Amino acid sequence: MANPTLQKEFGSYPDVTATTDAAVTAPPRSPVSIDGDAMTIGGTAAKTGLLLLLVVAAGAWGWNLVDPSTGSTSIPAWWFFVALGAFGLAIVTAFRPALAVISGPVYALTQGVALGAISHIYDARFDGIVLQAIMATAAVFTVMLVLFVTRTIRVTQRMRGVVIGATAGIALFYLVSILLSLFGASIPLVWDSGPMGILFSVIVVGVAAFNLMLDFDMIERGVAAGAPRNLEWFGAFGLMVTIVWMYIEILRLLGKVRN
Question: Beta-carbon neighbour count of residue 101 at 10 Å?
Fold first, then answer.
């Protein structure tokens, strides 16, 4: 989940999208960057594209590691170790942004394998669902980007607090659900295909979509403040994490709807 990660590094930069009755002044340049060596939108976008390509490439491999044609649609045991490794990389990068140039590609490859495997399992149960999830993810990303660029929705401090709080709450909810599953218990709301389960997934997808807004805002503020170029990898990493999370949630939502 990207926004708490980006907030940690870019949160001290001025909110260049905020408007007041007074004139808005340009944010101060970062003292650690120099001309020609500062973070840019284009550089961050290029690195995000590269990381997503690694996710897709690793996903193709992960897809072939499972064989739902045998009749088994259970998640293989190794999947949980791969997913846990990807989660660990995300935590490490959140506290060591400079490592994103290395941890970003490694996370993309690791998470890609996990995504490919789970996507194949879903596609075996619901034919064509993976393509639908990819198209829906791309559509949501485009819509949120347009809403951000046109300032139809403005990222305010209050919005940041609400979205980050909701994201943390969802993460805690999933963590409790996983812990309960280790003891044979479960929370029906997470996996249920009924109205409440579908509503829960819709809410989570919405929170993930607004995380994109926060990602765009944090990257923009970092660029405006002249953050050093190496933080392009950190910005790209955070954006990739959100996109991957949104894809997973959309895949789960479509699976519930089609169940």
Answer: 17
93 alpha carbon, distance to own chain's centre: 14
Report yes or no: 239 and 170 within 8 Å, Cβ to Cβ: no
* Radius of gyration for the chain, computed over Cα atoms and rounded to the nearest angstrom: 19
The Cα 99–Cα 89 span in angstroms is 10
If we measure between CA atoms, which residue out of 24, 43, 17, 39 comes closest to residue 226?
Answer: 39
For residue 236 the two structure tokens come to 């790209």
Provide the whole-model pTM: 0.83
Measured distance CA(94)–CA(89) in Å, rounded:
9
Q: Are 177 and 187 in contact (CB under 8 A)?
A: yes
Residue 24: partners with Cβ closer than 8 Å, 6 or more residues away: 16, 18
Which tokens is 87 given? 């989660």
Secondary structure element (H or E) that encloses residue 203, with its range? helix 195-224
Measured CA angle at 111 (ends 176, 231), to 5 deg: 100
pLDDT tens digits for range 212-256: 999 999 999 999 998 899 899 999 999 999 999 999 999 999 999
Q: Is the dihedral of CA 209, 30, 224, 28 positive or negative?
A: positive
Are 199 and 240 spatial neighbours (Cβ–Cβ below 8 Å)?
Answer: no
How far is residue 218's CA from residue 212's CA, in Å, rounded to a whole number?
Answer: 10
| CA distance linking residue 174 with residue 201, whole number of Å | 12
